[in-house]
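Below is the record:
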Amino acid sequence: MRSRPLRAGALALALLALGAATPFQVAATPTVIYRCTAPDGAVTFQNDTPCAAGLQQQRRVIDIAAPLPAFVAPAPPVERPPAVPMISTLPAAAPGLRTGPDAQRAAPPALFACRVFDGSTYWREDAAAPPRCRPLATVGIGGLPGMGAGQACEMHEDVCEAVPEAGLCGAWENRVREAEFRWRFGESGARDAARIEYERLFTALQASTCAHPAE
C-alpha cells in the first residue's frame, strides 16, 4: 500500500512522528524512508513504499527508538501499625486508681501540667520545661510595624505544676489520647516518631494502676 507523500518541508516532522506514533511500542523497529525527487525538483518522502517510476529515489533505514516506559506511580508507603492497642478502641476506664488484682501494679509516673505564655497547656514527666522564645512586638520606620521592624523575642519559661495524685489517671489517659491523635492525624513525615511516642506512653499507662481493661 502506498503511503501518503510528505512535502520536503515536513521531513523533520515526519521523522519525529514515526517515533511518536507508537507510544506503547515495546522494542525499536527499523523503518524504511524513501526520498523521492521528481524531474521538476519536487521532493516527497514515503514510508516503506519505493518511489514511483521516473522519480529519483534515496532509501534510508531508520530505527525508531523504543519509548520510555510508562510512568507508574509509586505505591503509597505502608503505615506500620502500633505494637499496642489504640486507646480510643478500649472500654472507658473507671475514674481514679484501680483496685483488685491490678492494685499490685506500680503507681503511675508523675506528670506535670505546663502552661505556655499563649495560654495552651501540655503534660510532661518532669518540671524542667525548656525555655521558649516569646515574640516581642517591634516597630520600624516611623513607628509602624512591618516597615523594617525586624524580629525580636524574649526567653520565657513555661509554668509547670505537679498533677495531684487523684488526677493522675485522668491526666495520663488524656496524654495518651492526645499522643494517639498526633500519631493518627499528624503530618505524614512525623508519624513514625509519633507512633513510637504513643507506644511508649500507652505502655507506661498500662503498666500502672491506671491501666485500661483489655476488653
